[in-house]
Amino acid sequence: MSRFFKQVHVMSALIYGAIRGRIAAAKHEAQTLTYLVREGNELALDLYLPKATDNNPLPLLIWFHGGGWVIGSRQDIEKVIIDQVNRGYAVASVSYTLAETKDGIETHWPVQCHEAKAAIRFLRSNAKKLGIDPKRFTACGMSAGGHMAAMMGGTIGNVKLDGSLGDHPNVSTEVQGVIAFYPPTDFESVPRDFDGTLDYYEAESPIAKILGAPLDEMKEAANLCSVCQQVQSGSPPFLLLHGDRDPIVPVSQSKILEDRLKAIDVPVTFRREPGFTHGDFGFNKGEHARAIEQFLDELR
Hints:
CATH topology: Rossmann fold
Strand content: 15-25%
Structural class: alpha/beta
CATH architecture: 3-Layer(aba) Sandwich
Number of domains: 1
CATH superfamily: Alpha/Beta hydrolase fold, catalytic domain
Number of strands: 8
């Protein structure tokens, strides 16, 4: 398949998935909360709660959207994640600052990580008021958001990545599980001859934008932004889902993370899905959705 047709295929999959996710989310009423004010800018999250509960604190899924750190919004939620509201889970979909805005403002890693961890601290600090269980948080995300979710689970207590943003700097950023759909995990391990639609070493790539310069010029920053280089023993269980026809994030990125997690005795399940592409809606149904629900229920 040519690069052009790969791009069309992926864009179609992403658009279809985004539409299905937004339709599913529209069935639930969201409470929008400001979790952080940074440099005069408000960052918000949308909290979705089940309509009927037994008044016990709810397990929480914390969702980070995809978009290569340069596009996307918290309204873009994977359908299988928002559907968990029907199964008694709360879902918080978190905004974070994009690496480059339309007016040219640049914000580089690890600011996005510090913001995401501030969101976790905010949610934990306000857990009782919000009706959520501070001991049952699962970080979730797709693509760039999958990278963010993996970072939340793999770098608990990492001083450089925890940051001190927000009103609750001493509150734990711990999560009890991670669900990552096709996450980039180790930038420098992506082959230069990767036959996909994205050149990780190109000056205008999303990787260059999140790092602040091309990958070859940002070795230290790339290390700090690569889950495989930062993940530590004692991290919570991971569920990784990745299609073997992904032309944006090679499936080897999840395999590398699986190997790294196993080497440090972190529980991990890696579902390599034959024929699936980036943003494939197939992750949201059938055995794939059941695997996600089983993983969550085992954490619960």
